[in-house]
Amino acid sequence: MKPHWLFPFSLVICIAAMCEQIINQPTTKTGFHRNSVLFKAETVSLPTEQTLNYGDPTPLTSVTNQSHDYQHILTSGPVTKREIALTFDDAPDNAFTPKILDILKSKGVKATFFVVGWRMEAYPEIVKRIVEDGHVLGNHTYSHANLPKLNDDSFQQQIMKTDNLIEKFTGFAPNIVRPPYGNITNKQIHWLGSQKKYVVNWNVDSLDWKGLTGEQVAANVLLHVHPGSIILQHSGTGKGGDLSGTVNALPTIIDKLKSEGFELVTIPELLGIPAP
Ligand SMILES: [Zn+2]
């Protein structure tokens, strides 16, 4: 390689490495305002979630994500209490969700499951068990839609259809919503607000959807938690997806957090969200 090629080549490598680092950083937003239920982002890196094998919308780019109205997205609870919330997205399935429920039960921990409507229809007995075990259900849309791509009517249908399904199991529609991929427009956030619903993302990403080992998943969580953290994990996956790392990491995560004096609570408990 001739010397005059070296500089631009090195520059490209450096930029690529920086981008990789930024994308893989968990979010670190803090500053909970309990009265207004708003957050101020001190530093913002981006929620990441890989596409699933069903639906498979393309995740929005980092730049598009940053256009979100982050002050209206809840990503962590108060830093003044040693409380942390475990959340599981893309529930239910019949492969990994039952194993996760077994572990939560054996450890006496309540968590929050963001459920996908069509999966509820496919595995109603698992939803029933989530509710009977005392966990909280949140709305994760009907088809795991990439919400910014939808028109108003389609977006609202995604929410309402899933609300109706959840209500059949719990007796009420949930007031917490997690948009797939963390992606949502300001207009959609404001509509949810008008329906007295809260948009809940996360500030610790286990990256478990990548098929990581239990050790890697546990490290991604335990190295980044702090009081008030909302931890993102998954309990359902598409065809061929592997969440055994999630299952293997969970006992370690729970035991370690408890040993450090953290109480594991649901999202409504962490954020002080009143019952719907
Ligand atoms: Zn999801």
From TrEMBL:
Keyword set includes ATP-binding: no
Transmembrane domains' residue ranges: none
Pfam families for this protein: Polysacc_deac_1
CDD domains: CE4_NodB_like_6s_7s
Domain NodB homology span(s) in chain numbering: 82-265
Top-rank taxon, per record: Bacteria
InterPro entries the UniProt entry points to: Glyco_hydro/deAcase_b/a-brl, NODB_dom, Polysacc_deacetylase_ArnD
Entry keywords, A to Z: Hydrolase, Metal-binding
Record PANTHER family: CHITIN DEACETYLASE 1-RELATED, GLYCOSYL TRANSFERASE-RELATED
Name listed for the protein in its UniProt record: Polysaccharide deacetylase family protein
